[in-house]
Amino acid sequence: MDEAQERAIIEDSIETVERTTGQPTQIKVTKGSLTAIPYSLEVNDHFGFFIYNMSPREYAESLIRQFDRLAD
Questions:
Q1: What global pTM score does this model have?
Q2: Tens digits of per-residue pLDDT, 20-63?
Q3: From residue 53, how far is each of 1, 3, 41, 62 by CA, in Å?
Q4: Lower CB density within 10 Å: C or N end of the chain?
């Protein structure tokens, strides 16, 4: 593989990651579409309850803080 081919592969990889992560993505389903919205592990319920040992109230407050940050 020469340098130009390697550059092309790297550029394609970067474009693919930018296009498919960090932004809402439409997914076609049988009846219409769904919007997949990426979120951080901090607001993942599994991590909140089982990794970070949050109470339900702490988890809810975490979700509210994340929403407020995104809404600004």
A1: 0.52
A2: 777 778 889 999 999 887 777 878 999 999 999 999 999 999 99
A3: 49, 49, 14, 12
A4: C
Q: Which two tokens stand for residue 4?
A: 């130009």
Q: Which pair of structure tokens corresponds to residue 51?
A: 């990794």
CA gap 63, 68 in Å, rounded: 9
- Cβ contact 3:11 at 8 Å: no
Is residue 63 within 8 Å of residue 43, measured between CB atoms? yes
Residue 14 phi, psi (nearest 5): -60, -45
Domain boundaries, the chain: 1-38, 39-72
Contact 62, 54 (CB under 8 A): yes
